[in-house]
Amino acid sequence: MEEVEQSAGAQSSEKRPDIFDRIMSLPVLRIFEPFYKAHKMVLLYLFFGGTAFFLNIFLFYGIARLTPLDPLVNNVICWVICVLYQFWTNRTWVFDGKTNGAWEFIKQILSFFGGRLFTLFLEEAIIAVFITWLKLPEMPVKLAAQVVVIVLNYVISKLFVFKKAEQ
């Protein structure tokens, strides 16, 4: 009886494989599995960061073409949508940001949005200077700004927002 309880306890403390672990264990991808396991967090951040990047660019381009909105307003609309998406994906898949109780969740979401607000202000400054004032083409500036933002968002998320998952 004790052996059953111990093995059940050992299984509950192990992390269950997620969809990405299952994909990487497919025979055709097994060669990459050691690299994936060693760099899983960064790879998932790049994957979901990439999807957020394309979502942001697609929304920015679509809004710019369909409406007469100022680029700064357009950027804020895209930011709100993408940050909601990023919080969910980063919390669920990248950093395993489980919390104990409502207060920890509130602190987590506030620190996430606080970090994203910082990078939003930086991105808005880049857009204001290079698009609004210097009249450079919108999309190259937006793409460059997104690269800066993605790197800073990873650092902020890893070091400040989801650091509990690392301990």
Proportion of strand residues: under 5%
Helices, by number, come to 7
Give a quick account of the main beta sheet: strands, pairing sense, barrel closure. none
| Contiguous uncertain segments of 5+ residues | 1-13
Q: What percentage of residues falls in helices of 4 or more residues?
A: over 70%
Average pLDDT taken over every residue? 83
Structural class call reads mainly alpha
Task: Categorize the overall geometry.
Answer: globular
Span of the ends, CA to CA: 33 Å
User: What is the N-to-C succession of helices and strands?
Assistant: HHHHHHH
Radius of gyration based on Cα positions? 20 Å
Number of strands: 0
Sum up the structure in keywords.
disordered N terminus, 78% helix, mainly alpha, 167 residues
Summed up:
It is built from 7 helices and no strands. It is mostly helical and 167 residues long. It is globular, with a radius of gyration of 20 Å.
Structure notes:
It is a single chain. The protein is mainly alpha-helical and 167 residues long. Helices cover 78% and strands 0% of the residues. It is built from seven helices and no strands. The longest helix has 32 residues, at 102-133. Residues 1-13 have low confidence and may be disordered.
Topology:
Blueprint lengths: L1 H12 L5 H6 L8 H6 L1 H27 L4 H24 L7 H32 L4 H24 L6
